[in-house]
Amino acid sequence: MCGRHSQPLVLYCNEKSCEELACSSCVTEKHKNHIHEITDIPNKAQKIKDTMREFEKKCTQSEKCLDGKINIKKDLIEEIRITSSETIKEIDHAHDQVLQKVTKAAEELKQDVLQHQQKQLELVVEEHNQLMKRRETNIKCANLIADFLKKNDDVNIIRKSSDVQKTLDESKSSGSKAQIK
Question: Which partner from 29, 73, 161, 171 sits 20 to 30 angstroms from 125, CA to CA?
Answer without folding.
Answer: 171
